[in-house]
Amino acid sequence: MDAGGGPARVGIGLRAPHYRDLIERRPDVAFLEAHSENFFGDGGAALAWLERFRALYPLSLHGVGLSLGSCDPLDEQHLARLHALVRRVEPVLVSEHLSWSSAGDRHANDLLPLPLSEEALDHVARRVEHVQERLGRELLVENVSAYARIAPSSIPEWEFVAEVVRRSGCRLLLDVNNVWVNSANHGFDPRRYLDAIDPASVAEIHLAGFERAAGMLVDTHGAPVAGEVWELYEYALARFGPRPTLIEWDTDIPELDVLLAEARRARALAT
Amino acid sequence: MSLASAQAEFLDAVLGEEEPADAGLAVYHRTALASRRSALAAAYPVVRRLVGTAFFDEAAARYAHGTPSTSGDLHAYGAGLAGYLEGYAPARGLEFLPDTARLEWAVHTCAHAADSADFDFAALGRVPAEALDGIVIRLHPAARLVASSHPVLAIWEANQEGCDGKPGRDQGPDHVLVRRLGFAVAPVALEPASWELAQAFARGATLGQAADALGTGEPLGAALSRLATLGALGGFEHAPRS
C-alpha cells in the first residue's frame, strides 16, 4: 500500500463478529487487517471467509505469535504457515511486533517487552532480517506497550525502535496508542519519541484504546481511541504525512458502526 | 544477565502459579492466564456448559498452570484437556466428561483442517476389479473418529446453542465421525460396519484388508457408500506393491 501523498487510508481490524455485517454492507474502509494466526489452519470456514474479504478489500496481515525477539530459534513451522498465508491472500502489508513471547518453548502468547539493550537490539534486528528473507518481502515491525522493563534497559525506546528499523531495513508500524501508553507508564514525552522516528520509515499507523488498571495504562484494544491519542495522531500526521491507519479493537468488540465512526474520525484528521 | 536468561526469568514470573507482586508483571501474568483460559473456553464450549462457568474456569486455570502453551498460535492450545480431566478429582463423578472433551477437540481441529474435493466414486469404479483389493482410501483430512462408552454425541448435540441440554439418549456407546458439511462441523454417529471400515482406512489398510476386518456377511459396498456420502473420504491410491 502506498504510504505517500494523498489522504491517509484508514482500515479496520477484521474480527469474526463483524464478518456478516461487512459482507452485507461493504462499508467504505481502505483495508482490512487480519491477525495472521487466526488463519493458520489448512482449510475450513476461516480461510474461506478471508478469501471472500480478499475479493472485496485489500488485506493486511498482522502477526501476534512469531516471538520475533525471543532467544528460542525462530519457529520455522510458524514461519512456513505465515508464508503460505501470505502467498494465498497476497496482503498489501505484513507486520509483526517488536517483542517476544516465548523462552524454552513456553509461550506466554502475549507481546512481552524486550530489554532496551544493545544485545536485544542486535538480536531482534537480525531476526527481522531473517524473516524478511524467508518471506521474500518487507516486514513491518510494531512498537509495543510495556508494563515492565527488563534490565538492562539503557537505550531510550525511540532510539531502539529507530535503530532496529535502520539495521534490518524494514519499516515501522507505528502504534501511536502504544507510544502514549508507554509515555505515561515510563514517564517520557511522546512527541520526543515521534521526533526520533524517520518519516520515511513509517509505513502504517495503529490506533486503539487503552484502559486504566493498577495505576497504569494498559493497551487492551477494548475501548475507543482516547482524546490524548487522537492529539498525538495529529502530531504524527503533521510529522510523517498521511499513512495507512488502522483502528484496532480486540476485546469487548462493539458493533461495526462504532469502528466505522472511529475510522471516519481518523480519515477526517488526515485530510 | 544475558538476553536469554533475562527472558527465561521474566517468563517464569509471567507463567508462575502466583501472581507477581510487581504491578507490571502482574498485568502480563493475568493476560497470559486469561489467554489460555479463553482458548480453552473457545475449544470446549460443551464441557463448559456441562460443568458451569465457575467449575470450568477453575479446571482451566489449573490445567493452564500445569500446561504451558508451546505454540505462538493459541488455536493449538488445549489438546490435553481430556486426559487432564480424567485425573481431575472434582470431575470424578462425571465419567462422560473426558470423552466429551475428546469429541470437542476433534470438532475444534476438524473446523480448520484442510479442504478436499468430494470423493471420486466414479474414478473408483474405473479401477479394474482385480486391482480393487490393493486400493488404499484416505479419510478426508478434516475427518476425525471418536469412540466412547458414553453417549457423547447425544450430549454434544443437546448442548449446542439453542438446545435444552437434555440428551436424547442416556446410554452409550457412541462411535462418532466428526466431519464437515460444507464449512460447518457436523459430527454424526456411525453404525458398526461403517465405523470398522473408517477405522481400517485411518490405519492405512487396503480395501482387501478392510474387507477382511469387516468379517463375513458385512456388506463392504454399503459401508463404503455411506462413508463417502457422509463426506468421510478423501482420495484413494494404489497401495505400493510389496
Describe this structure in words.
The complex is a heterodimer of chains A (271) and B (242). Chain A is 40% helix and 19% strand. Chain A is of the alpha/beta class and 271 residues long. Chain A has one domain: Divalent-metal-dependent TIM barrel enzymes (TIM Barrel, Alpha-Beta Barrel), CATH 3.20.20.150. An 8-stranded parallel β-barrel of chain A has the order 1-2-3-4-7-8-9-12, surrounded by 5 helices. In chain A, strands 5-6 form a two-stranded antiparallel sheet. In chain A, helix 4 runs parallel beside helix 5. By secondary structure, chain B is mainly α. Chain B folds into 2 domains: 3-94, no CATH class; 121-238, no CATH class. Chain B is 49% helix and 11% strand. In chain B, the strands form 3 sheets. Chain B has a 3-stranded antiparallel beta sheet with strand order 2-3-6, sandwiched between helices. Chain B has a two-stranded antiparallel ribbon with strand order 1-7. Chain B is elongated and about 75 Å long. The chains are: A alpha/beta (271), B mainly alpha (242). Chains A and B meet through helix 2, strand 5, strand 6 and helix 4 of A and helix 1 and helix 2 of B.
Spell out the blueprint of helices and strands:
The complex is a heterodimer of chains A (about 270) and B (about 240).
Chain A: E1 10-13, H1 19-25, E2 32-35, H2 45-56, E3 59-62, H3 76-89, E4 93-97, E5 100-103, E6 106-112, H4 118-135, E7 140-142, H5 157-168, E8 171-175, H6 176-186, H7 190-195, E9 202-207, E10 211-213, E11 216-218, H8 227-240, E12 245-247, H9 256-269
Parallel strand pairs in A: 1-2, 1-12, 2-3, 3-4, 4-7, 7-8, 8-9, 9-12
Antiparallel strand pairs in A: 5-6, 10-11
Chain B: H1 3-15, H2 23-43, H3 45-51, H4 53-66, H5 81-86, H6 97-111, H7 121-125, E1 135-139, E2 144-148, H8 152-158, E3 174-178, E4 180-181, E5 184-185, E6 188-189, H9 192-203, H10 207-214, H11 220-229, E7 233-238
Antiparallel strand pairs in B: 1-7, 2-3, 3-6, 4-5
